[in-house]
Amino acid sequence: MWWKERCIACKECQNVCPQTAISFSPEFALDRKKCDLCRECTIVCPSGALQIVGEDMTVPQVLKEIEKDTIFYDESGGGVTFSGGEPLMQPDFLYTLLKECQSQSIHTAVDTCGYAHSKILLRISEQVDLFLYDVKVINDETHKETTGVSNRLILENLKMLSHKDIIVRFPLIGGLNDSEKDIAELGEFLSSLKTIKTVSILPYHRGGAGKAARLLNPQPHFVGEPPSAETLDAITEKLKNFGLQVSIGG
Amino acid sequence: MISERVLQLRAQSVTATPFISTERAELLTEFYAKSGPVSTPVARASAFKYILEHKKIYIGEGELIVGERGPSPKATPTYPELCCHTLDDLEVLASREMQPFSVDEDTKKCYREKIIPFWQGKTMRERVFAAMSKEWMDAFHAGVFTEFMEQRAPGHAVLDNKIYRKGLQDFIREIHEQLHNLDYFNDLKAYEKEQELKAMEIAARALVTYANRHAENARELAAAEKNPQRKEELEKIADICSHVPAHAPRTFWEALQMYWFVHLGVITELNVWDSFNPGRLDQHLYPFYQKDLEEGRLTKEMARELLQCFWIKFNNQPAPPKVDITEEQSGTYQDFALLNVGGLTEKGEDAVCELSYMILEVVEEMRLIMPSACVQLSSKNADRFLKKAIHVIKQGFGQPSIFNTDVIMQEFLHAGKSMNDARAGGPSGCVTISAFGKESCTLTGYCNWPKILEITLHNGIDPKTGNRVGLQTGDPSSFTFEELLSAYKKQLKHFVDIKVKGNNIIERLYAQYMPAPFMSLLVDDCVKKGKDYHDGGPRYNSTYIQGVGIGTLTDSLSAVKYHVFDKKTMTMEELLDALQGNFASEKVRQMLVNETPAYGNDDEYADGVAQEVFEAYFSVIDGRPNTKGGTYRVNLLPTTVHIYFGQVTGATPNGRKAGEPLSDGISPSQGADIHGPTAVIKSAAKIDHARTGGTLLNQKFMPQLLQDEAGITNLAHLVRTYFRLGGHHIQFNVADAKTLRDAQQHPEKYRDLIVRVAGYSDYFVDIGKKLQDEIIARTEQQHF
Lengths: 250, 784
Description:
The structure holds 2 protein chains of 2 kinds.
Chain A: H1 12-16, E1 22-24, E2 28-30, H2 40-44, H3 59-68, H4 70-76, E3 80-82, H5 91-103, E4 108-112, H6 118-125, E5 130-134, H7 140-147, H8 152-160, E6 165-172, H9 180-192, E7 198-203, H10 208-214, H11 229-240, E8 245-248
Helix pairs in contact in A: 5-6
Chain B: H1 4-15, E1 19-21, H2 23-34, H3 40-54, E2 75-77, H4 87-95, H5 105-119, H6 124-131, H7 134-142, H8 162-165, H9 168-180, H10 190-224, H11 228-243, H12 252-269, H13 281-294, H14 300-315, H15 324-329, E3 338-342, H16 354-366, E4 372-377, H17 383-393, E5 401-404, H18 405-414, H19 419-423, E6 426-428, E7 432-434, E8 439-448, H20 449-457, E9 461-462, E10 467-468, H21 481-513, H22 517-522, H23 526-529, E11 540-548, H24 550-566, H25 572-580, H26 586-594, H27 604-621, E12 631-635, H28 641-648, H29 676-684, E13 698-701, H30 709-724, E14 729-734, H31 737-745, E15 754-756, E16 761-763, H32 769-777, E17 780-781
Helix pairs in contact in B: 1-14, 2-3, 2-5, 3-10, 6-21, 9-10, 10-11, 12-14, 13-16, 14-16, 16-17, 17-30, 20-21, 21-27, 24-27, 31-32
C-alpha cells in the first residue's frame, strides 16, 4: 500500500528493490507483476508511505493483543471480532484462536461473507458466540455479476447456522439491491429463519476509493451509489415490518 | 429555556472587551501613601478595607447576583504591589494579538504619574527576582522552568461548605476567642498571631461594609425604578446584601450571593494565582434548594436562572493581565475556577443530586469559558450521570472534564489527608487536587523535561544560547543508554534543586511581605493557628512543580534506545548532528517519527520508558519539605506552557523539529498515538496516578462519534475503563479538524467555538495560531 501524502520521494525504495519493480515517473509506481513481496522497500521507507498490510502472527501473538483489551470488554460487555478479509480463509488458525478465547471467557464474533464449505463453518460455529454475516444481494443474478459467485451456498449456510446468534449485515447500494422486490425477498428470507433478530443496514459509501488509490488501483472494480436518507428510512421501515430489528451502520 | 434577562447579561459578558481599570491600583496607592506605622498584615487588611470602602458599586440592569471586581464587567484591576506594569507593558497589553486589554489614555496617565512612581522598586516581582541566584535566573531564561509567583500571588484555594453555615460575624467571634486566648508569656509568636488575627477581623468587616454598600445602592435604584417587577427584585437584592455575608445564608439565592461576595473579596485582595471557586457547588447548594422548594420560596426555573446569573459573574472577571513568560505559560483570560459536581459526600455516599444535573444543564446552556465545570466520577455514581456529562461534552466546548474520585481518594490519602477532608476535596484549577477549604495548594511553575534532555545531550550547555546552565555529565557519544538515563537524572535533580531552593525563598517572601488576611479567614486552620495563608496557616500545605512533556521525552529516549542502541540504525553522533541541523535530512526525521516505539500505543517498550521518567521526576520531588510545614508533590499538566517550552527547545530525537510544541499533559506526542484511544488509555494508566496530585489527559473526538446513544455509551465505557485502570482525569475535544481550520481562516464566524486547551476551555479564535495548529494536530480519533 502506498500513501501518497506521506511519500517524500526519497527513492530509497527504488534503490533497494531487487526486482526493479519500483519507478518514479515522477510519482511512485509499482509493477505488481515484478513485485515478489520481499518487503525490502517497506523496511527502508522512512516516512511509512509504503506498507505491507497485515502481518504474519502466531496464535499466542494474536492472543496477547486480544488480552491487552480484556479490561475494555469487562467494562462494556464486548469482546473480540475476527474479520478480514475473510477469516474463514484461515479456518484452522481461526478455530484455535476461538477456542483459546472461549477458554478465557472472552466473547467472540466472526465477521464473514458466508461463502465457505459448510463443514468448515459448522466447525467454527461450535466455538463462536456471534456471527456477523453478510447478505450482500438477495438476487442471485446480481450477486453473480457483482461478486463473481452465486449466493446459494451463502444463504444455505445461513439457514444452517440459524440456531446461533447472528447479526445479518446488509450493504445497501443505490440501484443495485434496493428495489421493492429485493427488499421484499430479503425480508421474507430473513424472517423465515426466525432466529435472526437484527439486520444491520450498511449504507454504501465511497470510502473505499481512497484505499483503492493507496493500493495503486487506478480504476476501482466497483462504484455504486450511496442511498439517500429517504431510501434508507423507507427500507428500514420495510424490513421492520417483517418483524426484524433493524439498525443502521454497525 | 433561557430568560431574556440571562440572554442579555450573557451577551453583555461575552461581547465586552476586557480593559485595564486603574481603580484598585489608585486606591491602593492612596492608602499606602497615607498609611501609618502598622504591621504588614494589618496594613494589607486596611488597604483591602480602603479599596472596598471606596470602589465603585456596580449593579447591572437585570442582575440578580451583584458585585464586580472592577467598576463594571470585564474591567480588570491591576496589582502593582505584586507587579507594577511599565508603560511598555501597557502598550503590549493593548496591542498584543492574544488576550489583549484595552488601555485608554487616562490609564496611561495615571500609571505614569501615580502608580509607577510609587510602586516601582517596591514590588514583589522585583523582590523575587532580586532574591534568585544566578543559576536560577539562567535556568529560568533558558526555559527549563517557569515561576508562577513572579507576578501573581499563590492561590489555588477552593472553598468548602463553611460559608454556608457561618456568617462573617461568626468568623469574627472565632477570631476574638483566639485573640483572647493568646499567651504572650509563653508563646513567642503571640504578637505575630495577634497582628494576623486583627488583620483577619479588619478584612472580614471590610467585606461586610462592601456588601452593605451594595444594599444601599440597590435600595436607591429600587426607589428610582419604574418597573414594579425590577423594583421588587432590587429590594430583594438589598435585603440579601444586608444579610450576607455578615450572617449565614438562609436561602438558595443568599447562598449564591454569599459566595459571590467572598469570591470578590479573594480576587480583590490579591491577584491569586487562580482557581478560587466554590468547589462542590451541588452539595453546598442542595440543602438550600430543597428547603426553598419545600417552603415555596423557589421554583426550579428560578433556581436555574439564579445559577445562570451566577455563571455570568465569573465570566465577567478575566484573569488579571499577565506579561512576559508568565503570559507565555498561561496565555488565557481564563481564571481556572473549576466547579465540581458529583463524586462522594463526606460520609462516602453517592453525592449526585438533582442539582448536579441542573448544573450540567446550566453549563451547556451558558457555554462560557468561565467558570469551568468538572464532574467527579466515583464508582458509586450512576452511569446516567456520566452519560449526562457526555451529552454536554458532545456540544464540543470542552466542558465538563471528568475526574476519577476513587483515585483522587488514594492520592489524598497518599498525601496524608484525613478521609473526611479527602471526600470534601477534589480537583481545582486544571486538574490538581486539594482539600477544599483546608489547603494551600501552590503550583509554582512548570518543568520542561525535554529541555533537560537537550541540555543532557549537550553536556550541560543550552545549545540555543551556548551558555552552560546544567552540570557537566559527560559527552553523550560515549554513553550507554543507562548512562544517558543516569546523566538525565543528574541534570533533573540539579534543576529541581535550583527550583526548590528558589521556591523556598519565594514562599518566605510572600509570608513576610504579602500576607492575605482575607483568604486566611476562609481556609482552616489559619484562624485557629493565627497564621497566614501564605505562612503555613492552612491545615495542609502542598507545593507543586508541574512536569511537562512526558510524551516528547519518552519518545525521544525511546528513539535513542531503539535506533542508537538496539537497532543501531544510527550512531549517537549522527543523531546529535541531525538534532543540531534541525533534521536537514527529512529521511532521518521520518524514520525517527515512524519507526520509534512511541508512548500512547500500549507498547511496553515505550511505556516502560514513560514509567521510568515519571519515577525519576517523582523521586526528586515528592515528600521534600516546603517552608510552610507541608511537602512538595508532583503533577503533570501544561496549561499553555507546552507551546512556550516547545519554542525554547531544539529538535528532539523523536523527530520533533525545533520550536514545535511539546506533548501536553500526559497525552502522547501529537500524532504519535496510532492505535486508538483504548491504547492511549492503557499507556496513560501505566503512570502511577495515585502518587501524583493530578495528571491531564486530552482526547479529541470527531462529533460524529457521539451522534447516537451507542457512541455515548462507548465513550462512557472508555472513561470507566480508564478510571478502573487508575487514571486521574480525562477531557475531550469534540470538533472536527475541518471546522477548526475554517475557524482559523474565518475567526469572525466562530467567536463561539470553544475548545479544550489543557485543564480548561478557551475560545478557539483567542488562543493564537500555534496553539490552534497544535489542537488541530492532536490525533483525531476516528474509531474507538
